[in-house]
Design a protein that fits this description.
The protein has 21 helices and 19 strands. The strands form 4 sheets. A 5-stranded parallel beta sheet has the order 3-2-4-5-6, sandwiched between helices. The protein has a 5-stranded mixed beta sheet with strand order 7-8-9-11-10, sandwiched between helices. A 5-stranded mixed β-barrel has the order 14-16-17-19-18.
Length: 569
């Protein structure tokens, strides 16, 4: 297996702004640098950052189409029309449906939800879903986390007398669908101030607007913020602006009074600690996602909208079983894929990875693509056969626009969609070779050498002497961490081992590093860095790391999580 060396990039901050902020906040200059790097330059901005307030959420009616959407829903309720809440099968889609369905169910009985089947209908709005609505007397479909490019499907619905409200956060096409309302802040003429909401975030703004117009207390919408937070974390949207406010308060709800379904899911996952964004990404999200990957995402929605303990616990057990099956498939297919690359010299030399096996499980190929990038850092697409067509999932590396690269190969495709870092695509079996060669050509022409080396972004240089509980306490108040507000990475130079560092479990380093001035030590762990142990033992070294708490026998201490080491210059 290749060992991916990493490039270190120290982020540059405007030092005059850092100094000005330090003069008003009087906290460690490195912490001021962290804030400036996050766009926080004044005392008031810092106060709002450290104390995110729900009162700072934008007026939902600033979003283009919102008044039309709320008026149509109000009209449907007044006339007793049936409303269908429609969403995608991933975490963002299922939480979107759960939030909007649960809110309207509490005030109106005449509604249902619909999630397309990943295997028989594919992504987004389907003809089958529209037929279901028309055949069962639904007058209005509220589509969540999908639909922004479904012009033909919306036209089809219109021909059947079914109205659409589109709530999406993906990049729009040249022309919006002919829906009653299209809510997507990424539309060029949408004045909404914050553009990076999750699909569930758009759904939340819809119920917020409806509550505002109907005089429903806004607190009634806040009870769904734990699910909004799960969507924000799982869909990897930036945790900045409104997303940060909703994630902050959603995490608090998740940790104090979670909705019944999420509480059951935390139970089957044996979670007995305070959750953070990372726990949602790696523990909660995969279990919700597993429903749509292995069977049917309706299981996830039923869990999230459950109102009785027994039903909730039963659905959580089902998702736990699906997740175990997903993990087994993920592991075996990843190994097969790694073997395919490792035994093919021409594959090893490529700038991209495109792999196809007709027997691979469609539900996990996106995960497998991500795993492959951990070993071969380059744009990656994994393909399998489904209903006579080849379907695939792609993942990218930092700085390389995957969607644009696939767009350049569209002549070989039936359809594709996605964004810069992840995409889905469909083609005929006989086109796989042509697509693979075309994609490799596009990537080879466009990708830079730096983009093929994983990057560690460093926020600030720090002396190990500065690591203390007060410093760490301020860092914890910068949470929740995620894209746009990553957990800070620090750099310390010219360090020496205390002679107590050692390799553990053959591949990790347990660090014991001497602090330069008072010569006490700080401990740490470097996962997967065992092969760099000679550097640590023999010479002065530089180290990039994060600071974290370690709890051992009820004793709390600070330690460092080491990302990389290298010989000091």
């Amino acid at each position: 297996m290749p060992r991916l060396e990493k490039r270190w990039t120290v982020r540059l901050a405007d030092e005059t702004k850092v100094t000005a902020l330090w003069q008003s906040l009087k906290i460690h200059p490195a912490l001021c640098r962290l804030l400036v790097l996050r766009g926080i330059e004044t005392f008031d901005e810092a106060r709002n950052f450290f104390r995110p307030s729900l009162d700072s959420l934008h007026d939902p009616f600033l979003m283009k189409g919102m008044a039309n959407a709320v008026n149509r829903i109000t009209d449907a309720i007044a006339k007793g029309q049936k409303i269908l809440i429609y969403g995608d099968y991933d975490v963002d889609g299922t939480t979107s449906v759960a939030v909007v369905f649960s809110f309207f169910r509490s005030i109106y009985p005449n509604l249902d939800f619909y999630i397309p089947n990943r295997y028989t209908e594919g992504y987004g709005i389907s003809s089958k879903g529209i037929d279901f609505a028309a055949d069962n007397g639904f007058s209005l479909i509220i589509a969540l986390d999908c639909g922004i490019k479904s012009n033909d499907k919306v036209d089809y619905a219109n021909s059947k007398g079914v109205d659409f409200i589109i709530c999406d956060h993906h990049t729009p096409g040249d022309e919006a669908p002919a829906a009653i309302a299209v809510l997507d802040p990424k539309q060029e003429d949408c004045p909404y101030p914050y553009k990076e909401l999750s699909g569930c975030g758009i759904g939340f703004k819809l119920i917020q607007a409806f509550a505002q117009q109907q005089g429903i207390p806004k607190e009634k919408t806040y009870q769904y913020l734990d699910m909004v937070c799960v969507s924000i974390a799982s869909d990897i949207v930036p945790i900045t602006g409104e997303n940060r406010i909703m994630a902050f308060h959603g995490l608090e709800k998740l940790n104090t009074s979670p909705s019944m379904g999420l509480k059951s899911l935390m139970g089957v996952a044996d979670i007995d600690k305070r959750l953070d964004i990372s726990d949602i990404v790696f523990i909660i999200g995969p279990r919700i996602n597993a429903a749509g990957r292995i069977d049917d995402a309706k299981h996830a929605v039923r869990l999230l909208i459950a109102e009785e303990d027994a039903a909730s616990d039963g659905h959580a057990d089902t998702l736990q079983q699906f997740n175990q099956e997903r993990k087994d498939l993920d592991k075996s297919i990843t190994q097969q894929a790694l073997d395919m690359i490792g035994t093919d010299e021409s594959m090893l030399q490529r700038k991209s990875t495109v792999l196809y096996d007709e027997n691979w499980h469609k539900g996990v190929i996106g995960i497998v693509a991500s795993r492959l990038i951990e070993n071969y850092y380059r744009p990656t697409i994994v393909l399998t056969l489904s209903d006579g067509k080849v379907t695939g999932s792609g993942r990218s590396v930092k700085g390389f626009d995957l969607y644009e690269a696939i767009d350049q190969c569209r002549e070989h495709l039936i359809q594709f969609g996605g964004h810069k870092f992840a995409a889905g695509l469909t083609m005929l079996p006989e086109k796989v070779k042509d697509f693979s060669e075309a994609f490799e050509k596009v990537v080879a022409e466009r990708i830079t050498p730096d983009q093929m080396i994983p990057e560690i972004e460093i926020d600030a240089e720090l002396s190990l002497e500065d690591i203390n509980p007060k410093f760490y306490n301020i860092i914890t108040q910068m949470a929740p961490f995620g894209p746009g507000n990553m957990k800070p990475v620090f750099l310390s130079r010219h360090l020496r081992d205390s002679k107590w560092s050692k390799i553990v479990k053959e591949e990790h380093i347990k660090f014991s590093i001497r602090r330069p001035i008072n010569s006490d030590t700080i401990d740490g762990i470097g996962f997967g860095l065992g092969y760099k142990f000679p550097i640590v033992k023999d010479v002065h070294f530089d180290m990039c790391y994060q600071i974290e708490e370690n709890v051992w026998n009820d004793k709390v201490s600070l330690q460092i999580s080491v990302k990389d080491v290298r010989v000091s210059e």
